[in-house]
Each structure stands twice: as structure tokens, then as C-alpha cells.
Amino acid sequence: MSSGPRQLPPVPAHFTNRTAELALLERLLTENDTTGPAVHLISGQGGIGKTALATAWGRHLGDRFPDGHLWADLGGFSTNGPLSASEALGRFLRALGVPPEGLPGDVEELTALYRTTTAERPLLVLLDNAASTEQVLPLLPAGGESLVIVTSRRRLGRLQTEHRAKLVELAPFGSAHSAELLGRAVGAERVDAEAAQARTIAELCGGLPIALTTVSAKLAGRPKMSLEKIASELGKEYRRLATLSTKEAQSVEASFNLSYDELPSDAAALYAALGLHPGPDFGVGVAAASIAVREEVADDLLDQLVDVGLLIDRGDDRYTFHDLARLHAKEKTAGNEYDRDIAVRRMLEWYLFTASATAGLTTPDQEPIPYRYEYRPSARASFDSDQEALDWLELERENLIAAVETAHDWELPELGWQLAAAMWPLFLFRKHYPDYLRVSEIGARCAKAWGNASAEALMRNRAGAACRATGRYDEAVRNYLAGREAARKADDSVVEIRSVEGLGLVALQQGRLDDAIEWFTEDLLLGERQERPHDIGLALINLGAARVRAGRPEAAIADLTRARDILDGDDYNVARARIELARALTVAGDLAAARAELEPARATMEARGSRFEVARTLAAFGEIAEADGDRDRARGLYDQALPIFVGLGRPEADALRTRLEQL
Questions:
Q1: Which of 243, 303, 488, 504 is most deeply packed, by most CB within 10 A?
Q2: What is the C-alpha separation between 603 and 609, in angstroms, rounded?
Q3: Any residues with CB less than 8 A from the CB of 551 and at least 6 apart, and which?
Q4: Are 450 and 417 in contact (CB under 8 A)?
Q5: CA geometry: angle at 246 spanning 244 and 252, to 5°?
Q6: Looking at residue 375, what DSSP letter applies?
Q7: Is 255 helix (H, G, I), strand (E, B) or coil?
Q8: What backbone phi and psi angles, to 5 degrees, belong to 69?
Q9: Strand, helix or coil at 149?
Q10: In which order are the strands placed within the sheet that holds 124-128?
């Protein structure tokens, strides 16, 4: 059996009834009359149990889809805003085995890659909380044997008419099923003993599972509390969520307030602060920072919020809100701008403080620009290995991006730039090109608003790198030129080096070899003028690569040998120098020396997990075989390298295809 992704969330512990709806879904599945995937739409108001039903049915069907189960909360009605198509596609593609560095930066290209990847794989896809048909369409897999389950508060007419989506609408529970849910949570004997009060609670909760579940959590935590007392409290509660005006909204808020009003002050403060958290889920560390308590204290408070039904425990020390609960939490700080500002700043600064602990993974582009914390966390995170540091950045990627955007929106430009800059190790090693470009552009805007030209230059360079890597050369040149202008304005020659290097790399990828050599020569002079050996070595690698392609292998060999020696101690860039040196030696006819350079380079890149550089090594070995007259071996090596370049969305794939055709 295939071991594809298994992303469906667990079925809620007290999932109740919905027998008729489950039977209807099964019947509709047998009536699928489309050539594409079967699409089922579960619709109903907020809190009515759409996600619970979709999850229960999806898990029941799980064995029918061994190639994988994908899930995404599209956030259609979340206070954090809907999930973008790029983010959702990126998540799905990574789950299906596409590495982060293989994701193109353009949403159309992401969609095409997703359709290609899913064409022959029957998948179960749960798209939860969709706002519109447009949000759903890019996420429909291509395979006709796949099943897509969509939940939404709307009926999504276009999805029904154009994609034959089968609609199942949910109604609130009646009194019997409401009592059943209460009974499962607090015990049937307790409900039977106060049957009339149970019916009153069900009526006041409007038959909404989310309201019933919250009330049940309160009752379960107080075994001696009577149902009559809860019914009385619910009857007195008339507040409602400001953004909702339905009768049902009153019951939802009333159920939340029953739990919230009895929280200890510190748990209530944490709940309100977390309502302002920028990302979709969170861990204990940022929760502790939000109200300035120790992590062990925050851990206990989070458990309290989970116990009373105000927070969802996703496992692995990660927590999230139902979107109505998040809105309720957010309202608890409405009108108190001082508390809101403090909570947001504490959380953003915690993310910066922890992300800064990963800075040692890379060589900095410039001298660090210090940041003065207003709410400095008490203890810095420590990572036992580079892999652990990268894994943390990956885990918190969405939250870090949301933190950058929040800092920009809340007019905290210095903090926004620092957060954007701190994500560099993730983008260097894992690429995430769409995120890379988005964060760099916001970081540049923050730097400009902050008034720091050197910081702006760095972000413009990074935006240029993201564009260059995905073949968007005109945008790359604009960003690099803007970076160079900002660097000169700041009199920052170190950052200018990166701008000039980037302009050379664009020229090299476009085949403008004379321009590339000119830019790399200027890059080398800047490095020598600043006495920066590492930058000198990088410039020599690029200069050597350009000279090889320009048919000047002897000059290239001198450049690359010097680069290899200067960069001694930096295994990754020494390996890069060796790859280019091997290509120069191949052109010069010294095939034995070329192989001697490539072998250690390949070992280094495989150990580093750099698929792009491994592919370049394979291509270089192919060039040696081709020069040696072994066309079959060359073709085999190129065939190994090509799918890696294609999977990474790299422009090198086109040149390699041409070479294969010539063979």
C-alpha cells in the first residue's frame, strides 16, 4: 500500500448523529457523473458541525485512497483572512513529495505542477472553510478517481453548476440529538436526571454543536453543577458577536461567555491575547510571551482553555481556535488599544528573538543591524543542530510570514524588517520561492518606511534572488538595481556587492556572457576593496563560471582554483568552486583532474541535501562522459539530472533538454 500523506484532522471526541447526512454522502458518491474528481460540498452556518462531518466521513473513506489524504483550512471566514492559493498549493505539493526548493514562484505554475503531480494519484482532499468557488478551483486534483470534500458557510453556486458538486446542507440539531451530544460529554444519567433543563440548554444553544460542545466542556469540568444553573445562565446572556447578527450568533457567544466569564484572570488574559496571534496556530513559547509568563505557566493555562472548549489542541504542543472562538477572543481586547499593542508586540518580538537564534546557519550579507527589544523574552531558544534550527523555521514559516505582515500593517516597520531578514536561512536552504519573494518585498517596504536604506538594499537583493531563481529576469534586474541604488545611498559597499553579484548572475543565466563577466569583475573589485575574502571567493566562482561558458577555460581554471583555496573551511562553497572547476578542466581536456574535483563536491552536496547542486554535479559528470566519447553514459547522467531541475522549476532544465536532444 502507498504511504501518501495522511493530513485529515481527528474526528471530534463527541461527534454525534449525522447518520442521515453520512448516508446521503455515500449515496451521492456512487452517483458521480463527472470526468474529473468527485466534489462534495457540505454547507451550513458557522458552528453547525461541517468540519466534524467532513472529517468523520473522510476518515471512514480513508482506506479507499491509499495515495494520500490532503487537508487545508482555507480560512474563508477567519479573522486572519483566507488562505492564499499559493500557500495551499505549496502545502499540498510538499506533502506529495515536491521539495520546498522545487516550488515555482508563480501561482499559475504552482497550479500546473499540482495538476501534473495529482494526475495519476487518486487522492482524498478536504478543503475546509472555503469562502468562494475561486478559492477552491486551483486545489482540485486532476485525477478523475479523486474525491474532494469542501465545507463552506456558502452554497458556492459555481462549484455546483460548473463542477457538478453534490450539495449536502446541515441543519441545527433537534432536541434529541442535542441531548445526545450533552450526554456523551457529561454522562447520560446526568442529562436524563434533568431532561427538561437539557432541552432548555439545547434550545438556547440553537442546536449548534459548537455551542453545545462549549457548554458540555463547562459541565464536564464541574460534575456537581446542575443543568438548571447552566440553563439559567444561558438565559440571562444577551451579548452577541459584533460581526454577526443572526439569532444563532447569540447562542454561540453566550456559550463562549459561560466559559470565559469564569476563567481565572491569567487564563482570560491569555485567551484575549492569543486572539491577536498573527498566524493560524501556535505553540507554548509565543503563548507565554503574549502575557509575559513562564512557559510552564502558559502550558497550564492552555490546558485550561482547551478543557473549557475555548481552544483546540492539535497535538505536538500546537493549538488553534475555531474561527468563531478567535473572533470572540479578539473582541475581549476591543477598545483597549494599549493592551492590544503590548500583546501583539510581545508575540512579534518573541518570533524575532527565536528566529534570530538561527542566524548562525548562514554568512550574513551585511553587518547585523541591532534591534532594541521593548519586551525582550527572558530566555533565548537554543537549537542542538542546524537541522533542528531549520526544522523550527519550517514549522513556524506561516507564523513568521504573518508576523512580518502584521508588523507592516501595525506600522512597526523596524520590527517588520528584522523579522523578514531573520527568515533568510529558511529561504537560502529550503527556497520557498513564493514566500521568499513576498517576505522580501514586504521587508523592503518596511525598511523604506523605517528610513534605513541599507536594510532596504538587502531586501531588494533578496527579492531579486527570488525572481532570478524562478526565471523572472526583468523583475530580478529591477530589484537588484534598486538594491544597488539604496546601498549607494547608504554608502554600504558590503550590500552593494550582493546587488552587483545578482546582476551578473541574471546576465549569466540569460547568456549575456560579456555583461556577466563585467559585473563579476566589478563584484571582485568591490570584495577586494573591502578586504572580504569570502566575497572575493564567491565572485571568483561566478567569474570562472562565466569564463568557461565564454570559451576561456584557462582563465577560468585560475579563477576557480583561487576561489577553492580562499573558501577553504566553507565546505558548501568549496564544493561549488569544485563543480565549476571540473567543468573548466573538462573544456580544457583534463578529464582525470575534472573527475577528481567532482567526486568530493558530489559527496558534500549529497550530505548537505542540496538537490540543485547534486543535479549540477550529475550534469558536470555527463559533460565529462560526453567529452570522453561515452554518449550513452552522458545521456544517462543527464537523464538523472533533468527531473531534478524540472522539479525545482529551474531554468537550467531547458539547456539540459537541448543538450539531450543534441545527443
A1: 504
A2: 10
A3: 587
A4: yes
A5: 75
A6: S
A7: helix
A8: -125, 120
A9: strand
A10: 69-73, 124-128, 147-152, 38-43, 166-169
Q: What are the grid coordinates assigned to 395, written together? A: 514549522
Distance CA 647, CA 100 (A): 10
Predicted TM-score (pTM) above 0.70: yes
pLDDT at 298: 97
Q: What are phi and psi of 305, to 5 degrees?
A: -65, -35
Cβ atoms of 186 and 221 closer than 8 Å: no
> What is the pLDDT at residue 236?
67
Highest mean pLDDT among 97-111, 173-187, 609-623: 609-623
Let me know: does 375 contact 289? Beta carbons within 8 Å: yes
Helix (H/G/I), strand (E/B), else coil: 79: coil
User: pLDDT band at 406, cuts 50/70/90?
Assistant: very high
Which pLDDT belongs to residue 239? 37
Question: Which range among 77-81, 567-571, 599-603 shows the weakest confidence by mean pLDDT?
Answer: 77-81
Those residues with Cβ within 8 angstroms of residue 34's Cβ, 6 or more apart along the chain or in another chain: 144, 163, 164
Q: What mean pLDDT value characterizes the chain?
A: 90
Burial of 378 (0-12, 13-18, 19+ CB in 10 A): exposed
Q: What integer is the mean pLDDT of 106-135?
A: 93
pLDDT digits (tens, 9 = 90+) for 520-530: 999 999 999 99
Nine cell digits for residue 37:
474528481
Angle, helices 571-588 vs 591-608, to 10°: value is 150
Cβ contacts of 649 within 8 Å, gap of 6 or more: 102, 103, 104, 105, 109, 113, 433, 470, 471
Nearest Cα to 496, choosing from 365, 614, 388, 599?
A: 365
- Beta strand 147-152 with 166-169 is unpaired
Say if residue 3's pLDDT is above 80. no
With cell 453543577, the residue in question is 225
The CA distance from 144 to 147, in Å, is 8
Give the other-Cβ count within 10 Å of 207's Cβ. Answer: 21
Sign of CA dihedral 554, 556, 560, 562: positive
Q: What's the distance, CA 94 to chain centroid?
A: 10
The predicted model gives 367-390 an average pLDDT of 89
- The mean per-residue pLDDT over the stretch 231-239 comes to 66
Task: Outline where 490-630 has alpha helix (H).
Answer: 493-509, 513-529, 533-549, 553-566, 571-588, 591-608, 611-627
Burial class of 11 by CB neighbour count within 10 A (0 to 12, 13 to 18, 19+):
middle
Residue 242 pLDDT: 33
Q: Which single residue is written with the C-alpha cell 526548493?
A: 101
Residue 250: band (very low, low, confident or very high) from pLDDT cuts 50, 70, 90? low
- Mean pLDDT, residues 433-443: 93
Q: What is the DSSP string of 269-317?
A: HHHHHHTT-SSS-B-HHHHHHHTT--HHHHHHHHHHHHHTTSSEEEETT
Quote the pLDDT of residue 246. 39
Q: Quick check: 378 pLDDT over 50?
A: yes
Mean pLDDT for 486-492 is: 96
How does residue 2 score in pLDDT terms, banded at 50, 70 and 90? low
- pLDDT tens across 470-479, in order? 889 999 999 9
Sorted by sequence, the CB contacts under 8 Å of residue 327 that are 6+ apart come out as 79, 241, 243, 275
Q: How many Cβ atoms from other residues are within 10 Å of residue 265's Cβ?
A: 7
> In sequence order, which residues have a C-beta less than 8 Å from that of residue 189 and are 6 or more positions away?
none
Give the H or E element holding residue 128: strand 124-128
Among all chains, which residue has been given the C-alpha cell 562522459?
625
